[in-house]
Amino acid sequence: MAITFINKHTDLSIPETIKTSSWMKECIREEAFLLGKLQYTFLNDEDLHKINVDFLNHDTYTDVITFDYNRNNIVFGEIYISLDRIQENAQQNNTTFQNEWHRIVIHGLLHLLGYKDKSVEEKMLMTSKEDYYLSLQPQ
């Protein structure tokens, strides 16, 4: 099916998505899932904060929120990402906006593929998977 990227941020643009979409489809296949419908929506901090409060009852800023509608091993989901958080994370981690964008995009996908990041062990596995899939991304 399809991966859709929607940018609702008024000041920041997103990197080229065709290569990213192909890369993500490979990640999905490697994890033994099939692609159903996956939508990424890019927002500012305030809009993502509102989703966090309204739907998750979390009064905090975050970089990514994932809504998992998977059916068996078919990926169906909505992922909301703050481009403001990506920009700030990139500066704090001394990396490019594009590199941090890819990290957050794959992070949201990994949640749909069953990975969690609540415990120390889960975070370590999630980071390891992020690093692995980032090493496979097109340049």
Can you characterise this structure?
It is a single chain. The chain has 139 residues and is an alpha/beta fold. It has a single domain, classed as Metalloproteases ("zincins"), catalytic domain (Collagenase (Catalytic Domain), 3-Layer(aba) Sandwich). The chain is built from 5 helices and 4 strands; from the N terminus they run βαβαββααα. The chain has helices spanning 18-30, 45-56, 83-92, 97-112, 120-136, and strands at residues 2-7, 34-43, 64-68, 74-82. It has a 4-stranded mixed β-sheet. α3 (83-92) packs across α4 (97-112) and α4 (97-112) packs across α5 (120-136). It is globular, with a radius of gyration of 14 Å. The chain starts with a strand and ends with a helix. The mean pLDDT is 96.
Radius of gyration: 14 Å
CATH class: Alpha Beta
Which strand-content bin applies to the residues?
15-25%
Question: What characteristic shape results from the CA principal axes?
Answer: globular
SSE arrangement, N to C: EHEHEEHHH
Biggest sheet statistics: 4 strands, mixed
Q: What's the number of domains?
A: 1
Topology:
Layout: E1 2-7, H1 18-30, E2 34-43, H2 45-56, E3 64-68, E4 74-82, H3 83-92, H4 97-112, H5 120-136
Helix pairs in contact: 3-4, 4-5
